[in-house]
Specification:
Helix content is 20%, strand content 29%. It folds into two domains: 164 residues, no CATH class; 141 residues, Nucleoside Triphosphate Pyrophosphohydrolase (Alpha-Beta Complex), CATH 3.90.79. The radius of gyration is 26 Å and the shape is elongated. It has a five-stranded mixed sheet, with no helix packed on it. A four-stranded mixed sheet has the order 11-8-14-12, with helices on both faces. It has a three-stranded antiparallel sheet with strand order 2-4-3. β6 and β7 form a beta hairpin. It is of the alpha+beta class and 315 residues long. α1 crosses α2.
Length: 315
Amino acid sequence: MRELSDRTTSKAREADPVLTCQAATAWPFAPREEVDVTARPDRSAEWWTTSDVAEFLGLRVQTVSAYRTRGQMPPPDQTVGRTHMWRPKTITEWHDARPRPGVGGRPATDGTSPVASDDLASFVVTEGMAESEWIVHARRSLYESEWIRLGLADVELPDGQRFEHHIVWMPAAAMTVLLNDSLTHVLLMWRHRFVPDLWNWEMPGGLIDEGEQPSETAAREIEEETGYRPRRLDHLVTFEPMIGMLECPHHVFLGIGAEKVGEPSEKTEMQRMEWVPLADIPNLINAGQVRNSGSLVALLHVLALSGPSVRELRK
């Protein structure tokens, strides 16, 4: 499995910080804390500069400058040299007229989303979805490498609030719950993770190489990390581990049956591997010995939905 390492980031570069307008993406962003805009700056002043407006709105100066350039706020009442100035009333009246939570927002549309199954119809509300979406007006890159991309998004909430939010991209990954032929044991690796500095049980898995299908990655990682080859490989679920800020799809597979084809080719992935009784997995989870999100989602999926029940295994 390829690891995120400073040693392999020679291609890392500082990206152009200029805002680049792009179409809205499906990434969601969590709102920041409310800012008290009533106490500052001085409303009795004759003029407000860009810094004063930014302080009033609770935004960065660069963000206000971008809004002015794109015509997303009132034009300056006066410009002296390179200094743009507004009368406080211009900004406060514009700000007060913007939609607030529960009042107005974007115009309603008839946007709907298809329902995957009639059985799920009662769980999916398709009306009014479009006006509930968060809109990304622009994104700018802060840092890029082959392992991670960090940026800021100019995002608008349905109630009209607008601010910048960090966004992160990382390569997609694939991982596998590998069961033995009798479906009683799962192959797990006991390994150390240096970032949180903890030991835990994990499944074989890794990052998807360019041009590779997730199923190919899953099979390759099993063989590289454990020396086993699954007799059958089925996709279970794809999930996002931190959907409010990070885009990094995790593709989870179920491997049924295993053939030993060699020794692990990656010698630094784990301290040991074991065929752990599937019936013991709930106790391991409760004891905090499975901390990896992909392993947790995969094992719980097998226990609850796609594999033999724990009750049957304990008979």
